[in-house]
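In the design runs reported in the main text, the only information available to the sequence generator was the tokenized backbone. The following block is the verbatim input for one such run; it is reproduced so that readers can re-run the procedure and compare outputs position by position.
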């Protein structure tokens, strides 16, 4: 592989959904983060070869949001902008698509990232209500419309379909993502207390990272009323194990243990990385913060989608002759506390590693102080399209500040998929 350098990156604060549409559309978030990133570069926006943006849930008025944002960023009409969607890993897919184009020589300098404004996911009418509207549109006379109006039933208005719930439900197995995480908790015997302890740790680590100034990749965003947002607003400084124990299970109310508190939050946010070939680094005098050495995508049973990081990261380790302990730091996206704990349990399980991964036995353990050291999605949120790009960017910052060499960013993906990238720092 030709070296693929990460030159720089930026993300917005991740803003927790608050009972209604958030202050920013997805394109607003991506534009503000991208603008801040491009303003500090030695080249102009129109010097980019392309802009690739991952988005899992664009609104109807943001079709091909990648092109829309590229134009808003001042890239001009000649710079292609396009959109990718690989569910939870859409931002990581954008990066991988950029890598492929740089590798084959089609591009040299690419802005790639991800975005979602999940608070703006729509409420959908039922099919019965849509048919009623269609019937009304076909009528002409006032009398016809009045008779048709009398056919309207209150139940047709009172039962909207929550678009986000449909999006978070696997269409093949009919399970919400949280129900797939319950499957993993049962499979590996993960208790409610273990989940809650992990969630508290995520909040505590995020607070500590904020206080230590370890989140420099965040750029402020400003809404239409002039309000400035500077921090991830879902992080709780008061998170305690006693508080985590209070919420009731959400996905399996009778037998489950996964709650809203030990799951990732519904969130709005955007994240970008700037990727360059060696030729582009030399041409513009760029100073990379790291490079992407390898990437992998894997498939597995949709009802166990949370183990995707295990299936995607393990082939990378095998290709490079590495053990879990050879990786200095990990960013494993926290879709659910139970899901991360299940990945750790799978790597320690002899039978799972032999039967599912083709290994001679258990791969081992990831030290606690090398995994998600600044917290993760349970505390800061999971804007689905952005998270894959966020973990790649943040991992490079973690490696650099700790003078470490090698890391893996990995993510589970709804539908039974996993993605992973092997990163290294550069001098």
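Verbatim output:
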């Amino acid at each position: 592989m030709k070296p693929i350098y990460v030159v720089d990156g930026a993300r917005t604060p991740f803003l927790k959904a608050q009972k209604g549409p958030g202050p920013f559309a997805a394109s607003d978030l991506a534009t503000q983060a991208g603008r801040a990133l491009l303003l500090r570069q030695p080249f102009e926006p129109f010097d980019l070869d392309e802009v690739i943006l991952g988005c899992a849930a664009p609104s109807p008025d943001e079709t091909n949001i990648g092109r829309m944002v590229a134009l808003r960023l001042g890239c001009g009409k000649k710079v292609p902008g396009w959109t990718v969607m690989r569910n939870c890993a859409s931002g990581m897919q954008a990066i991988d698509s950029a890598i492929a184009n740089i590798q084959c020589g089609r591009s040299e300098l690419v802005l790639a990232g991800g975005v979602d404004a999940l608070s703006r996911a729509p409420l959908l009418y039922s099919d019965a209500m849509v048919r009623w509207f269609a019937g009304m549109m076909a009528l002409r006379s006032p009398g016809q419309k009045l008779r048709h109006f009398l056919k309207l039933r209150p139940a047709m208005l009172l039962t909207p379909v929550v678009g986000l719930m449909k999006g978070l439900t696997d269409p093949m197995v009919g399970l919400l993502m949280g129900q797939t995480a319950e499957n993993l908790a049962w499979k590996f015997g993960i208790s409610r207390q273990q989940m809650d302890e992990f969630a508290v740790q995520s909040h505590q680590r995020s607070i500590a990272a904020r206080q230590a100034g370890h989140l420099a990749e965040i750029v402020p965003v400003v809404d239409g009323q002039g309000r400035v947002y500077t921090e991830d607003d879902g992080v709780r400084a008061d998170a305690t194990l006693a508080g985590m124990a209070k919420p009731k299970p959400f996905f399996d109310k009778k037998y489950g243990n996964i709650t809203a508190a030990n799951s990732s939050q519904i969130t709005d946010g955007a994240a970008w990385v700037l990727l360059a070939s060696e030729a582009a680094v030399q041409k513009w005098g760029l100073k990379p913060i790291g490079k992407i050495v390898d990437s992998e995508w894997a498939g597995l049973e949709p009802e166990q989608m949370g183990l995707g990081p295990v299936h995607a990261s393990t082939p990378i380790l095998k290709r490079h002759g590495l053990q879990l302990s050879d990786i200095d730091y990990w960013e494993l996206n926290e879709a659910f506390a139970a899901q991360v704990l299940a990945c750790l349990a799978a790597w320690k399980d002899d039978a799972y590693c032999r039967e599912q991964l083709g290994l001679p036995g258990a791969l081992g353990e990831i030290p606690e102080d090398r995994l998600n050291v600044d917290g993760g999605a349970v505390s800061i949120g999971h804007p689905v399209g952005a998270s894959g790009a966020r973990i790649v960017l943040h991992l490079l910052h973690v490696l650099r500040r700790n003078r470490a060499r090698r890391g893996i960013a990995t993510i589970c993906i709804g539908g039974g998929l996993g993605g992973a990238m092997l990163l290294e720092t550069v001098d």
